Amino acid sequence: MIWILWLIAVICVIYYIVIVVYSGITTSFSLIWLFFAAICMLLAGGWETYIKHKDKVPLWVPVSAATMCCTGILVFAVVEILVFTGVAVRDTSNLDYVIVLGAKVKETGITKSLKKRLDKAVEYVDKNPGTILVLSGAQGEDEPVAEAEAMRDYLIYNGVREEQLILETCSFSTVENIAYSRVAIEEDQARKKANRLNSPGIVVPGAFEEVPDKPIRVGVLTSDFHVFRAQQIAKKWGIPDIYGISCGSDPVLFLHFCVRECAAILKDKLVGNM
């Protein structure tokens, strides 16, 4: 057991170094791996002490430590099962709007995660030309432009029509992405309705009957590990029947993203965002 804990600690430190070299020291939540390494070393030292001094260490100490560790592993496993199997496969073709969630923009351009999302968006509108893309993301302090603006430029460069895009540049989190995008969609719907009322077609009196507006179909496009949380937040914030569209994620950072997403899901659930 002791050598297994030390091995895990070493692996965590090595993975942290890989993250820093591959993605930069400012990669969000990367210090969690040093924290995991410290916990493993602490557990290894504690287990060794317990083995040597069983008669002096109360039994509740190792039992409590083992229970906490098992509970943490179980919670992580359950959350990841929800993330990757809890989203039902549905037909996402011909949606009215698709919210494309932003990701960090660097001085050198868009990140790999954002590029994957945008490439998926290009692929989607090629097959569904009537869909409007809502590009969601503000400008962070360390970003040269708003994420939505960088996304627009990339999509237009790759052949997407500008009139097919709506920019939302106020959001700094997934919750804000969804909330502000919903407002942008409602405003676009109101504009379209006003245009229809102001420019009525020529009709024969009594030849038509007014029907209620058709419910709009909205999707959210983001990385595979992020779709579950985005959908749950959308359901909480006024888009109850939202469709999830996932794209692949960086294979090097995939494990890190899963751990970070688990923490984000627990936090959002705790504060009532989902």
TrEMBL record:
The keyword Transmembrane helix applies. Gene3D superfamilies: HUPs. It holds the Pfam family DUF218. GO terms for cellular component: plasma membrane. GO terms for biological process: Gram-negative-bacterium-type cell wall biogenesis; peptidoglycan metabolic process. PANTHER family: ENVELOPE BIOGENESIS FACTOR ELYC, INNER MEMBRANE PROTEIN, PROBABLE PERMEASE. This is DUF218 domain-containing protein. It comes from Lacrimispora xylanisolvens.
